[in-house]
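Help!! Second protein's tokens look totally different from the first
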Amino acid sequence: MIYVIKFVYAFLLPPGLFVALLLLAAGWLYLKVNRKAGWTMLAAALLLYAASIQLVSDPIVRSLENRYTVPDRLDGDVYVMLTGGALGGVASPAGEGQLSGSTLQRVVSAAELYKQKPMPILVSGGQVNENTGNEGQLSKRTLLRLGVPEQDILLDDKSRTTRENAQNSKELLTKTGLSRPILITSAFHMARSVKHFEARQVIVTPYPVDFRTSPGTLPRTYMQLLTPKSSSMDDIAVALKEYLGMLQ
């Protein structure tokens, strides 16, 4: 019953609300104005609905996330962690600046891996826009607060793109004599990241984190899969961005 209530409730908020309005408009056009216009509006409603449900978004994101699995062993000499967003000018317990959810997941994962097998952590990420925080510096600050010694943190705080992450990381790896990097980034971002590192002759061991989808779905969640959500649209946008990025 709880899933039925949530399904109905979803149509009172965007994007479900917009789907409902488009369906009403399609019916009115079909009956009162022009059947062809009604069918066109119905197609628009169905397209919006499809783009806002997990039944569609999960397989698209999973097509990226399933390309690499978590390795059984930590066979490397350095962790390379790519950042994925931060806010500047906002208050946090550690001071000004706040990591995005994706970056924080990567940072926590890097700190947990460090506790399992202490190795240098190369943090790669800079300030993308004027109003965003410096992702590398904020990530280093968080790693320090999580107990990673400063001498074990290498910092690239200049990179703004995945391409620059790979290039600047390679330079730091060469400079420090490290050659077997374990690459830490979001599962959906891993394929594009590996592509850029390999283009620069850097062979990495992928360690995907920050998953957006679960491996399987139980029958009792079918209603959840069909409920329109803005997060599903966001997931599709993220996946499309990754596929476009792999074309560069």
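Here's the second one for comparison:
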Amino acid sequence: MKKIFGALLNYFIKGLLIVVPLGAAFLLIFWAVKSIDNALNLSGILLTDAKGKPIYIPGLGILNVLVLILIAGIMVTNVVTDPIKRWFNRWLNRLPLLKFLYSSIKDLTEAFVGEEKKFNEPVIVEVNEFGLKKIGFMVQRDLTKLNLPGDVAVYFPFSYSFAGQVVIISADKVKPIDKSAADMMKFVISGGVSGI
């Protein structure tokens, strides 16, 4: 009986290790999609049934976002000219808080998906005399504008978070890692438990 209970407990733990992360991932994706869809779904405002009650069409909010992003991409690529960009920048400069938020979010987005991805060079940095090393991503090789020749800027993401910190460190303490940036980001974000 003890052997059967031990085997069942072993199977339960192995099942738990598969079901919990998978379930949590699906739940998080479902929550994000549902939240976006509810927030941006205009069907309840635009459509009503014969009794005047709003008609909710699931998925319309996500479709709105996809169409808006696609139209913005087409407009920026084909219609927006340099004078319009300069006008937009002048308008943005008049609103410092909006400019700060817009430029910060834009830079972060471009770092991951832009034409010039910033987090594409994984490095390992020895951070103290005891041999403690951290994995990060080279973001600036030349800091002479900050009067720091010979130093580089390295971004260290935090585990289980998309937050992180930028550290200025001597270039000789930074060594490149011969692995893909995506694998190293996954390794750091997972707290080191994701295989590399």
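Reply: Different proteins will give different token patterns, so don't panic. The beta strands are 122-126, 133-140, 151-157, 164-170, 174-176.
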